[in-house]
Write a structure and sequence with these properties.
72% of the residues lie in helices and 3% in strands. Helix 3 runs antiparallel to helix 4. The chain has 344 residues and is mainly alpha-helical. It is built from 13 helices and four strands.
Length: 344
Amino acid sequence: MPVVLESCFAVAAAFGASVLVNGVLARYRGRWALLDMPNHRSLHADATPRSGGIGILAGLFVGAALVGVSALPGAGWALLALLLVAVVSFGDDVYGLPPYVRFPVHALAAVLLVFPGGYGLSVIDLPGVDWHAPVWLLDGVSLLFVIWMVNLYNFMDGMDGLAGGMACFGFGTLALLGVLAGAPGYALTVLVVAVSAAGFLPTNFPPARLFMGDLGSGSLGFLAALFLLWADRAGLFPLWLGGMVFSPFIVDATWTVIRRSAEGKKPWQAHREHFYQRLVSLGWSHRRTVLWAYSLMLKCSLLAVACFCFTATGVRGILLGLLAAVYLALIAVIKTMEHGRALR
């Protein structure tokens, strides 16, 4: 019982610290406020602080200090890699760093996590297939996965409540999967991240009074990669199953990059072509769009939990087919809506 109480206290403290710090940051308009000024690509109309990542990390570090990091494999290397991502992301919030400065730091963080940290894939586990690929390929996939998760979370942080909600659903579901897999240390560590994001969400839900900034989005993207690789490496659940949980971001960001690249556009340039941005452009309110996104996140989480519980290859194939059908239907609906609007 004392261990349970200590864990509950750590989770509550992480949430409380996040709520407190984010509440202060949402009201602060002094000299050091990092204000996000709206432009022609923005979905917000008023200058809004983008320092919420500080509050999220405050909750995370309070919770980690109380929980301890003994359950985290290669804790020193993992924390150093997180620090690198956080520092360059905060620098981007303050100075607007170019990609050629950010990406090498992201790559270095990925290298530290995968090699000395020991988070590289040992096998590519697909439904019904275990592919023992060459080590160089496994390491390459691991590195690219970390770098992509950091950046796609940044790409997707463009609307009130979206990235914070994905963190709550995503990390909360990973914590549940950790419990089901019999890994309480993993579950508790991930839950600290989920509640730290939950403490930020009240200030970010539409209409937002605070944005998480690159500090928040980059750190959460890195942590998502870390926990998915940790689960795969420890045999808790495979990477593809964990990826289902974060698929609302993974599919949107990846599809948008491929689509823009095919059209000859630079995928790293700011734009308004993500699914959620296109829905807002079609007249949906921020609140309606983010609530719709939450329903998608919930469906993906439930499908991932179902895939964990039902291990038969045929059942998992059906569940993955349902997930694919959801995204194909989403793409078709948005295209139909845009076509109908163009004909008016």
